[in-house]
Amino acid sequence: QVQLVESGGGLVQAGGSLRLSCAASGSKGIRAMGWFRQAPGTERVLVATITSGGSTNYADSVKGRFTISRDGAKNTVYLQMNSLKPDDTAVYYCNLRAIWEYWGQGTQVTVSS
After folding, report:
1. Measured between alpha carbons, how far is residue 14 from residues 32, 34, 82, 84, 95 in Å?
2. Three-class SS of residue 96?
3. Which of 17, 23, 76, 79 is spaced 20 to 30 Å from 95 by Cα?
4. For the residues of 9-64, what is the DSSP string, one character each?
5. Rounded-to-integer distance, Cα 43 and Cα 73, Å
């Protein structure tokens, strides 16, 4: 059974930083991991992904501010978020793609102005 355990969300002032972590267990053949976010009343959208080979992809809105990285040995993905803006406020979901796709429970990130 695949489990994704997220941590690192919270409340921060605009311009601040947070680091999200997502540890995966029970999965083999991971192709990619990443982060999506969903603000109230909106759809869930991609933030950043990283493949097993280390290739990364970012939403235009976070390029230059967010950095995704991974520890393959620990099956853990990180999202370093700098220069946070109120528009970054959302629930952030960890995503894992292997043969199937899996989601974490979500962690709230709130950026105050």
Report:
1. 30, 23, 10, 5, 26
2. strand
3. 17
4. -EEEETT--EEEEEEEES--S--EEEEEEE-TTS--EEEEEEETT--EEE-GGGTT
5. 32
| Positive or negative torsion for Cα 97, 98, 99, 103 | negative
pLDDT for 29 beyond 90: no
Average pLDDT score over residue span 24-51: 95
Mean pLDDT of 60-79: 96
CA-to-CA distance for 48 and 68, rounded, in angstroms? Answer: 7
Give, for 85, the enclosing helix (H) or strand (E).
Answer: none
pLDDT of residue 36: 98
pLDDT of amino acid 107:
97
Residue-wise over 3-28: b if at least 16 C-beta within 10 A, else e? ebebebbeebeeeeebebbbbbeebe
